[in-house]
Structures are given as structure tokens and as C-alpha cells.
Amino acid sequence: MSEILTYSNNRKSGVKVFVADNYEDLSVKAAAVMADVIKADPKCILGLATGTSPIGLYNELIRMNQENAISFADVKTYNLDEYYPLAAENDQSYRYFMNEHLFNHVNINIANTHVLNGLAEDWQKECTDYDLEIEKAGGIDIQLLGIGNNGHIGFNEPGRDFIRGTHRVELTESTITANSRLFNSIDEVPRAALTMGVGNIMAAKKVLLIANGPKKAQAIKDTLEGEITPYCQASLLQLHPDVTFVIDKEAAALLTEYKPL
Ligand code: F6R
After folding, report:
1. Does residue 164 or residue 4 have the better pLDDT?
2. pTM of the full predicted structure?
């Protein structure tokens, strides 16, 4: 694997892009970036994502934890988003996903793991409290992100605005369709979600975005080489001072800067 892009102009000077040979390579490299943060500060605060992209990375972190290379004993986590309305116990909830794919397998104190409450009666208060809690905890040290086929990060969907803080969002048809693969039928996919805003993401000290497969290629091109626009929410990351992309060859395929050997 090689670091291929430096994007050395001012706007993108904080952006590093690694192209991995395959999904396993991507997962190992991305896990190493997270593990370095945990090793440097065992009390760090991780911003976490769900979805299919981070499963390999989480498996790597579990392996490292089981081999005592990293400890989650004092780590705190805040997840990006949760469906609304949906109970934490529902096997499609992001809380359930996190327990299954990471928390149940590492030495983390479950009380230190935070996922938005998808059944909060007062969703506005739930969102405000989440932002305050993250701030009180000292802010996110590294925010892990996947990316939607439409360039969304968290559930910040393409639209007219960038939204700063945690908020409620109505999901677009394209996201409902993309996510229906994980539900029994498309009718079971919740129509809304609570999500951190792009302001929360931009406030993280470091950002790590992972993407694999051909369906992500256009979103990755728009994110890295397009104009900064809310119609591609991830494009705002061009302005982040410390963001690492770990993507596979298929996701990199449309980048002008990517010249396969
Ligand atoms: C998940 C999240 C979403 C996903 C994105 C990619 O917490 O916030 O933005 O990261 O939809 O999903 P996958 O990885 O399933 O392709």
C-alpha cells in the first residue's frame, strides 16, 4: 500500500489518502490509525461509525485488544448516529450493531459508550445533551467515518445546508434503499435518524474516513476533488486540518490523482 495523494494546496493540506490493495488491507491500515490514537492517550475519546465499512477495522481492534496491544479500559466512545424511532434492543439499531461488532468483545466499560437514544421522547433535548456531553468530555480525538454513495457522512444527507450540531434528519429515498439491504423489507427501515452534524465531525481533532468498492467511487471523487458543497456533505472535510482517507482501489478509481502502478 502506498500514500498516493498529498493535495498540497492550502485548502486540502490536512488531507492524506492511502489506497489499500483490498478490504483486509484497508481494515488493517485504518485500525492502525485508531490504535495509535488509543496508545498515545489511553483515555481518548473515539467517535465511531456503523455500517459495513468498519466491520473489518473493528475485528482488527478486537484482535489487538485480545493480544493486549491496546486497552479500552479508559476509552470513551460517541457514535455518529442512530435511527429514529428505533429501540436500542432492536437488532437493526446502531447500539445493537456496536455491541455486536465491538463493545461485547473488548475490555470497554459499557457505561463509557454512547449512542443516541433512538426512542428519546424529546429528540431535541437528546441532541442538545449529546453535544454538551461530548464537549464536557473534552471533544472527540478521532472520528471514524464511512461515506454514503451520495457523499453523506453520519446521516448528513445532500441538501442546501451544512448543519453544525446533532439533529434529527429525514432520510432520503436513496439512503433508505441503500440501508434496506439490512432489514427484512424496505418498509421496516425507519424514515428518520438522529445524527451528529458536520460541525461535530469537523470539531474532532482527527478524522479517519474509510471507503471500499465501486459504489463509493463517485462520492470519493466529489469529496476529494470536487467543490466544497452541502450537496456532497463529505466535501467539507477538505477544510479539516487532520483527515486521513483509507480507501480501496475501486473506491479510488475515479480520482484524477490516482495513477495505479
Ligand atoms: C453509519 C453512518 C453512515 C455510513 C455510510 C456508509 O454510522 O454514519 O454514514 O458510514 O452510510 O455505510 P456502509 O459502510 O454500510 O457503506
Report:
1. 164
2. 0.95
